[in-house]
Every structure is written in structure tokens, then in C-alpha cells.
């Protein structure tokens, strides 16, 4: 059944007020080389903010009549929307934050197409080229400023969490905001929205009128995690790998709340980077936290890390249970160490150039059935390389759970089959089974059918 929708035409207030004719034509091009489908899908996800669904395929089918068209006029551009979700409007007028996000999507799609893709300036097969592309995308989105002070806390965690866990994330955000730090998340619901909501209250009490709430996403996940309107700086990276690099390059510390496969992917990503020998001396505050009810969850995470990556990896994070003020104090102390370290090295505060990110964390991993079956999941490799391969396991499961292309691949070919050494696969199987039993794979009330199978 078609949902209630609205037709409208809107103009930009902040982002990208003019486009060339060539850019407009490419945005309207529905061919394989055109940008229309990318713009359509990302725009629909932004407009769907607040809807209780995390199924990218279902969203596209529910609003099958939705269309978006770029109108070029003498005084600038407008977006013509047909069949837009009514949830994005109040009394017929689009919510201002959602309108800003729509034009942020347009800005990033145009920039990546024109300035990054097929540009010899960026060698996307090299580590340096990928990092430079991430920097330029963030700079174009006005995320990077030379005057930046180290106070940006990245918050990771699940979109499918309990009410108690959500309120805890909100309280942590409040404590962070009281200490004059800013928030960066994946920009969606759950553990991504809670810290931002809390920080707005903390900032208000400190009379901080320009709190920074950065949302970093990518086209594959945005439909399942529609940006919440608290985000006042939204940026769309081309894929999950560049999105993750954007988090660790711009953030000064990371707080991890309970979550599912996506959160496990993020944990493995940051631990794999911190385990690289070149990063051994770089301070990077990393805190896992949740309410009392999350004790078993973090025990499982800690056991999984110990069983797969070892004791050294466990030493790179702190686990704090049910103490929101301590989380904020520890983060502020950790960021102070980051500041002192970067000052001693004459490194920038706004982008962590000194962090070594190996190419296995940067090259795009496409979770096809063949690629998932071919992952090297054995003990006989460097820990940071094992972390990179384990990250891909969870990245593929996220795709099969909530991304449009991943869901369609599972429907067509069946489960992803994942295999490796028993010492690796047993902890993976145990952790995934816990996520399923705790309803962390999909939103509560949604029946979960596993998209994966552990094979011997």
C-alpha cells in the first residue's frame, strides 16, 4: 500500500545553490553511468527520517512512485519532488533540517562524481590516494577547519537497541555536551541519535549556541539508517570503507555503545588499525559503554576480541558500565592526551594524517557470495590483517540484513557461506548467535531470517 506522500518544489539555503548544465544532465541520467538512481535512493532515505524501518529494499518498494528532478533556473536550482514521504513535512512544509540534508546529498554526489571518480589526481589503488579522497570530500562538505580544537567524540552503536540502552546513550551525550565536546555519529536512529539529543541539552546549559553534530554515512546504509535532523553537518562518503576512515581521521576519540553486526564491524575496523605496529604509540581514546543491562553484551565482545585478536587488542579500549559521567571524563582526558601528542608532532587537529591505515582496510569490499566464501579467516596472519578480514564478515552480514543490493542477493542465491579455522569461526558464530537472540540484527518486532551460514 502506498504511504501518504507530498509533492513539492524546494530551493537550497546552504548547500550547492548552482549547478552546470552538464551536472544537471548527469543527475537526471538514468543510464548505468548516470547519477539519477544514486540521488533518488539517497534522497528518499533522507526524507524517510523517523520511520521505524531498516529495510532498504522495502523502503524503495513502499515509495515506488517517488521521483526527484533537478530544475535549473536563472537564479539557481530547485528540487522537484513527487511522492515524497509525508513524515518529512510539518503542516505541508518540509522540516528545515531534512531540507538541508537533501542538498548535502546533492552536493556530495556531484562532488564525488566530478572531482574524485576518474580523476588521475586520486590513485584509488594506493593508500595515500584513498586518504586524500576522504580528506577532499570532508573539506568540500565544510567538515574540516584549520581552527578546529580537539573535542570531537565519535559515537558508534546500533540502530536496533532497547529503550534503556537508548536513554543511556542520550545521557552520555549530555555529559559530553556539558564538557563542551561535540558529537559525530553514523547519523541514524538509536545509538546514533541518542548522543546528539543529549549533547544538545548539555550544550544549551553551557550556552553553546553552535554545537557540532556531524553525521557520516554512505549510499548503501543510508536507507536503513536515515539521518536524524539533529545532524547539522551531513556528509555522504562513497562507500563503507571511506566512511569508516572519515570517522577515525576526523574524530579525536570513540565511544562504542551496544549494537549488532555493524557495531562489530566498526570495532574490528578501529582495533585493526590500532594493532598496526606503526600506530602503537598513537593515543586514541576508545571506550565501550552501556547500562547495567549491557554487562553481558560487552563481556561477549571482550571475549570475542580476546579469542580472535588477543590480549593486545583488549588493551586498546576501556569498558565502563553504567557510569555516564565517567565515560565523558575519561574521554576528555584521552582527548587531552591526543592534543598533546599531535602538538608534539606538529600534526593537525582537524585530520589525523599520522594514523597508518593499511590498504586492506581501504579497498572497497563487495559482499558477493563468492567474496564472502573466500575470506581468509585463519590464525596464521598478522592480527591487524585478521581484523581486516573479520571486519568484512560483519560488513557482508550488514549488507545481507539491511542493504537493498545485499537483501536481493540473499533472496536470489541464499545464505552467505562463511568458513575458516575453528578457533576463529566458533567465536564469530557465538557472537552472531548472541546478536540474533538479543534482537540486534533488525529493529524490534521484525522477524530476523539469518543471511549467513557458518560452514566447516
UniProtKB/TrEMBL annotation:
GO cellular component, one term: cytosol
Gene3D superfamilies: 3.40.50.450, MoCo carrier protein-like (3.30.1850.10)
Pyrimidine/purine nucleotide 5'-monophosphate nucleosidase N-terminal domain span: 9-116
Single GO term (MF): AMP nucleosidase activity
EC numbers for this chain: 3.2.2.4
A Pfam family annotated for this UniProt entry: Lysine_decarbox
Reaction(s) catalysed (UniProt annotation): AMP + H2O = D-ribose 5-phosphate + adenine
Occurrences of domain Pyrimidine/purine nucleotide 5'-monophosphate nucleosidase C-terminal (ranges): 335-455
Protein name according to UniProt: AMP nucleosidase
Species of the source: Methyloprofundus sedimenti
